[in-house]
Amino acid sequence: MESSTDGRRTAHLDNGVVQVLLTDLYQITMCYAYWKAGKRNEQSVFDLFFRKNPFGGEFTIFAGLEQCLALLEQFKFSASDIEYLRGILPAGTDPEFFAYLKDLDAKDVTLCAVPEGSVVFPRVPLLRIHGPLPVVQLLETTLLTLVNFASLVATNATRFRLAAGPDAQLMEFGLRRAQGPDGGLSASKYCYVGGFDFTSNVLAGKQFGIPVVGTHAHAFVSSFRTLPEVKGRSLAPLKPPKVSVGTRTQGEASHTGGDFLSLVESFRDEVCRHLHVVADETNDGELAAFTAYALAFPTAFLALIDTYDVLRSGLPNFVCVALALGVLGYLPRGLRLDSGDLAYQSKEVRRELELLSAAFSVPWLAKVTIVASNDINEDTLISLNAQGHAIDSFGVGTHLVTCQKQPALGCVFKLVELNNKPCMKLSQEVAKVTIPGCKLAYRLYGSDDCPLLDLMTRSEEPAPSVGQRVLCRHPFQESRRAYVSPSRVEQLHKMYWKNGQVCQDLPSLEEVRQFSFKGISELRSDHKRPLNPTPYKVSVSDSLYHFTHELWLEYAPIGELS
User: What is the pLDDT of residues 319-359, one digit of tens each?
Assistant: First the structure.
C-alpha cells in the first residue's frame, strides 16, 4: 500500500503479472462483439459473489479488494498489448476496434464492495460493478482471480485459528508448497489477514510488513558429525543478563576459558542423569549443530530436536545448550518437533523440561516454547486439542496455502442489470439462478448483538430500521420466511471506486486483519463450529422476492405437452 499526495492510502498491485491481458480470451471476443453490435455505451451492473461457503463451513472472509482497486487504477491496454491482440484475433477484425481499446480505461466504472476482511456469506455481492458493458465484461476474469484465492486462503487461515484457539501462535510455512511464487506470496499475505501471526516468507515480510520467523532445518543438524567441527566457540556474556542458571554465575563460566562448547559439555552428564539417558547415546553431531546455531543466534535460539531421537538425544542436547546460554544470561527461545506423535511428544518434552527446571533451579526452562510442524491441517489441530498437548506454536504449510480441503472458492460474475432493466440467469439447478437487478445488502443484528441474517433489497427500497419489523424471505423457497426486528442494522456495501479513482481511505493490512477478527468474534459460535455448523441465513426482502419470481416466470419458457 502507498500514500497519495494528500496522505490517503492508495492501492498498488502486489504483482506485476496482474494487468489488462490477465484474462480469458472470450472476454476480448465478447468485448469485440459488443462493440460491433453497437453496445459499447450500454450501462451494465455485474455482481461478483459465491454460491457456497468453503470447507463445509458457514462463513467466508472476503479478501483481495485492494488488488481489485489497483487493477482499476492501471487498467489500460499498452501498444504491445494491442499488437498482440491484432495477431490473435481473426484477420477480419475491424481495425477501429483496436483504436477503441487504445483509449479504454476504467474512469466510467464504479465499484461498490463490502470492506476487505468482512465476514461474508453466499449470494451477497462482494463487489457490485457499474459501467459500460464491454469494459466491465473485460474485468471479469481478473477480478475473479484476485478475489477467489485471496478469500479462500483467508477463510482457511481463520478456520485454522479457530481450531488452534486464541492463545496459540500460528506460523505460515507454505511458500515451498504453494502453487508457484504468486500463490506463495498471496497465501502469506492473506493467511496473516485470516489470523496467522508470522510467515517464513521473507519477501512477504518485506512487502507487507508481516513478522517473519525461521530457524534451521534437519539439513543443518545433519551437516555436523563431531563436536570439534564447532568453530569460533567464544560467546560473551549478555549484559545485563536476562536469566541465570541456579547458583552458577557468568563469572563461573570463565572457568571454561570462554569456550562456549566446553560450557555446553559441562552440563551433559548431569542432564542425561536426570533424564535417565546414557550420555554416550546422544548424538555428538546434533549437539555440535545446536551449539553452532546458538553461537550464531544466542538471543533467538530455537532448535529442531527430532533429527535422530526426540527424547534420547534431541531434548538432552537442547537442554545442555539452553543451560549454557542461561549461564551467560541469554534466554533460549524454544524447540521444534517436526515428526511423530506430536501430542505425546510435546507432553513428554514439557514434563521433562519441568523436571530439569526444578533440578537446575531455572524456572524459565519449564516455559520455553514448544513448536510443532509436520503436515498439520485443521483436523490435526482439533485432534490435538481433544488429546491434550503442550504445544505453544504451530508451523503450518501445505494444507494451509494450497487449501487442500477445497481448492477453489467458486466466485462468479453475473450480469444483473442492463440499461436500468433487470437481467436474470435461469437454470435447472436452483442454486445457479441469479437474483436480478441492482441490490443493496444489510446485516441485521439480534438482541444479543450477534448477526441474525443478511438481507438483500431492491436498490429503490428504504433501508430496514432498528426496531422496525421487516419480512425476510428465502430467495427461492416460499415457505421459509420470518419477521425480524433488528437491534442494529449495518449497510454492507461502500463505494470504493468512482470517477477514475479510489474514493475511500484504504485500511492497512493490519487494520484489515483486526477488522476480520472483529467480524468473526461477533458471529455466533454455532455458525463457526467445524462439524455441522448452523447455516447462516441470507434473505431477500418481500419486494425483491416477488420481483425475482415474477421475472423468473416471464423469462422461463412455457412447455407444451401433446
Answer: 999 999 999 999 999 999 999 999 999 999 999 999 999 99
Q: Tell the residue number behind the cell numbers 508451523, with chain if given.
A: 395
Q: What is the pLDDT of residues 186-243, one digit of tens each?
A: 999 999 999 999 999 999 999 999 999 999 999 999 999 999 999 999 999 998 888 8
Specify the residue for cell string 495477431: 87
Buried b (16+ CB within 10 A) or exposed e, 202-214: eebbeebebebbb
Find the helix or strand (DSSP H, E) in which 36 lies: helix 25-36
Q: How many other CB atoms are found less than 10 A from the CB of residue 282?
A: 22
- Work out the angle at residue 484's Cα, subtended by the Cα atoms of residues 483 and 487, and round it to the nearest 5 degrees: 165
310 vs 348: CA distance, rounded Å: 10
Is 380 in contact with 340 (CB distance < 8 Å)? no
d(CA 117, CA 194): 8
Contact 323, 267 (CB under 8 A): yes
Distance CA 213, CA 239 (A): 25
Q: Which amino acid is at 392?
A: D
Report CA-CA distances (Å) from 347 to 160, 168, 394, 435, 487: 21, 16, 15, 53, 47
State the virtual CA torsion across 276, 277, 278, 280 in degrees, nearest 10.
Answer: -160
Spatial separation of the C-alpha atoms in residues 139 and 127, rounded to whole Å: 12
What is the reported pTM?
Answer: 0.95
